[in-house]
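Researcher: Re-running this chain for the archive, since the previous output was lost when a drive failed. Same request as before.
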Amino acid sequence: MPQLDRLETTRLVLRKPRSEDAQSIFSRYASDPNVTRFVAWPRHCSVDDSKAFLEFSETEWKRWSIGPYLIESKEDGRLIGSAGLSFETSYRVSTGYVLAQDSWGAGYATEVLEKMVCIARELAVRRIYALCHPDHRASQRVLEKGGFEREAILRCYTEFPNLRSGEPNDVLCYTRLLP
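Model: Regenerated structure tokens:
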């Protein structure tokens, strides 16, 4: 089994979150209304919300030996976002990513998605998928560049609490099957 708590790409380090990351998560991306617009979790209103994410993360890592990752720049060590794999079965995972606004447009999401696919393949995953809000064109492009195909529109499937709290929205399901 590959080492999973720290991964590297050409420009990035993806690592397991630590309890001391709460303030950075909060200030770099999780409290930003522009960054959290199309995510399926509520924008963090305090560092306590980021601490709750870290508790969730630790639970996922204990259960599956993998989970959310924090993304750091190799160049300067700054936190630029998070990504991860979420197992549903031994052969099916979902993935996602969120980047701080000052990291948009640099190709980081594509680089991270490639690494998530690579790790999923090493873990014998057969199906990796991501859900995407229909208006989030940038994320759709990243998924398509990553070899994901739009499989379906899931009607009234999930809530985007930072858009319309309490109201289910349609989502696009992008899938990649792995050999």
